[in-house]
Specification:
572 residues; alpha+beta; BirA Bifunctional Protein, domain 2; YbaK protein; 15 helices; 31 strands; globular; binds ligand 9G3
Length: 572
Amino acid sequence: MRQSRIFLPTLKESPSDAEVASHKLMLRAGLIRKVAAGIYNLLPVGLRVIRNVETVVRREMKRAGAEEVLMPSVLPAELWKESGRWDFYGKELLRLKDRHGRDFCLGPTHEEIVTDMVRYEVRSYKQLPLNLYQIQTKFRDEIRPRFGLMRGREFIMKDAYSFHATDECANAEYQSMHDAYSRIFEGCGLEFRAVEAEAGNIGGSFSHEFMVLADTGEDAVVSCTTCNYAANVERAEIRQPKDEVLSKENLPTIEKISTPNKKTIEEVSEFLGLSKAELVKTLIYEFKKDKDEKGLVAVLLRGDQDLNEAKLMRVLEANEVTLATDALITEVTNAPTGFAGPVGVSISVYADFGVRELSSCVVGGNEVDIHLKNVVPERDFKAKYFDLRIATEGDLCPKCDGVFELRRGIEVGHIFKLGTKYSESMGAKFLDENGKEKPMIMGCYGIGIGRIAAAAIEQNHDENGIIWPFQLAPFKVHIVLVNIKDEESVRVGTELYEAFTEKGLEPLLDDRKERAGVKFNDADLLGLPVRIVIGPKTLAEGSVEVKERISKEASLVKVKDAVGEVLSLLKL
Ligand code: 9G3
């Protein structure tokens, strides 16, 4: 492709509303342009990157035995009513009416549609397993779309759905997709981690997120520095230190201390000159279980740690946990919010393991303006101890004796063991080998196509622009003519352009009437893997300059060796 002809509007500055590198650089390099909040045009060079991502995805989905389909993006409400999700989702689900006044939505995901597709066609276990995928735009009316393609409202997703007769088969497919995803992200040149994740509200028994590690990632991931355990902090388990039995003998007895209007951990620790880790906060939670069973619990955590509500829900086997209202707290503790404590409280007490390790601590006194010090866990109050806190830096890995480091991640993929949530509600059943009718067991597997391109930039850029991983680069070689009036330069440039084209390396030829400096800046911005600079000076010695985008130094190469040099630089 010749740059004098391509539609590639580069910018010197990025628009002010672009906050992260990938958003800034995709705008400046002329890859995307905003149409509306969270809605973008993919310009020619941006689309080439997306097509490269799709090529890797299709190759690995095919290798895993999945079949490509294409489902509609305007979806009838009826199917979403069958699954019960029409009323579950709020404004994020963009709804519309057709000319007959019938309800539709713009598809945010396609579980209902694919289950409807399969339920009429599959009747026997002999037709299973199935794995159907599509690459298609989704619409989710995010309240605050931002970061360009990273969190758009309309975005391209590869979403796959699998159907199985047995749990073993569904688990095998889950593992197969897990492996396919690893090959996809490796194939896209990304550094990623597969992390255990909360299954979220789509049910199913487990899920993994695939995170590209980048400081601008919106998700917090803890990953073990020794083994390959990694988990979304929402999900991460923590190994408890071997409970060295702290001597709890002859410790001073409890003392009341006056803490006038000191309610929060910050206020109390500052007022008493103690570290937050010497305090224990008491959270009063209301929980709801099945069959309208509900109750109150006191949850204790060290002052410097935070409750992971998902873990509390699992421990209580509750469907819902919510912080009690101030009125309820006063009812339970006979004190306003901020003075709750475990000593003498009437409701059952659950505590994070971090509390048990304390020899003594300060807790709320269940009395206005009073806290208690010298409180000894298991002497002055009883509690049931569990892993209840949000994991963080330095916590112990549950799989080995390593410790966690806290990383940010960009979620580029998420795979779920779905179970029978949709096949039950929508009657997607099959007859097993004994003629018994059973609901199919499903899995679903998503990849953010545009998000991969954005994450690749987040992970590979410098102050001058993008540094594309080879596999995603929109063109593989950048041929820059320093002076397009120099006939020899044009001849050599054209010769090399054709040579690389023959090698399938899709060169981009900068034959514009621009100063060399502008061309070099644009080449750095666009970030193609290798650049060849052709100018009269080096041609005088029969050479051209070859430079890898990722390294700073350039080397002089004889024209006849240029193709070979580039191939070896690209390890082809
Ligand atoms: C909605 C809206 C937003 C949503 C969903 C439904 C997320 C929704 C979860 C999934 C699960 C998997 C198949 C591909 C991989 C992810 N946001 N999810 O179900 F109506 Cl507005 O999409 N689906």
